[in-house]
Design a protein that fits this description.
Elements: H1 2-27, H2 46-54, E1 58-61, E2 64-70, E3 78-84, E4 86-90, E5 93-99, H3 110-123, E6 130-134, E7 139-143
Parallel strand pairs: 5-6
Antiparallel strand pairs: 1-4, 2-3, 4-5, 6-7
Length: 155
């Protein structure tokens, strides 16, 4: 009987310690924005910022890149970059912004969007979307991607 009480006390102490550690981690977790490099040397484009602000977005930083390292087979690893023009927030959500360039070939089909913009979702899984700003058309497109569950091809 004394052994059963001892085991129960050990289990209870373990649960309390586990709960305290979980609570500590929750309170001290990094917010998604704290994980990103926000450049203090952001290039200010008044036209783009005005367009974003009219839509309710607040510009908080930008013009940086995330290195992407790629290795095929046993060849030497090569680096590519994922460029970010701006970071913005709206209603406590944050978004990655890319500006449309004249030389960019944009394919607005779902396959085209996946091929061109999926790397941003992978690089910034906590962002609430990707904003594509077209200065020539004075338009903003919001892209959101959600990954579903794998499904067998026969269904």
């Amino acid at each position: 009987m004394l052994g059963d009480s001892f085991v129960l006390v050990i289990i209870m102490v373990g649960l309390v310690i586990w709960g305290l550690v979980a609570l500590y981690r929750y309170w001290n977790r990094e917010e998604p924005m704290e994980q990103l490099y926000i450049s203090e040397h952001m290039v200010h484009d008044e036209e783009v910022e005005t367009l974003l602000e009219k839509e309710g977005y607040d510009v908080i930083g930008g013009k940086f890149y995330v290195p992407l390292y790629i290795q095929m087979d046993n060849q030497e690893e090569q680096m590519s970059r994922i460029w970010v023009d701006l970071l913005v927030t709206k209603h406590n959500n944050w978004y990655v912004v890319r500006l449309v360039r004249e030389r960019m070939q944009l394919d607005w089909t779902t396959n085209g969007i996946r091929k061109l913009w999926l790397s941003y979702k992978i690089a910034f899984p906590d962002c609430d979307g990707l904003l594509i700003v077209n200065q020539a058309e004075r338009s903003i497109k919001l892209i959101r991607m959600h990954v579903g569950e794998p499904t067998a091809s026969g269904e």
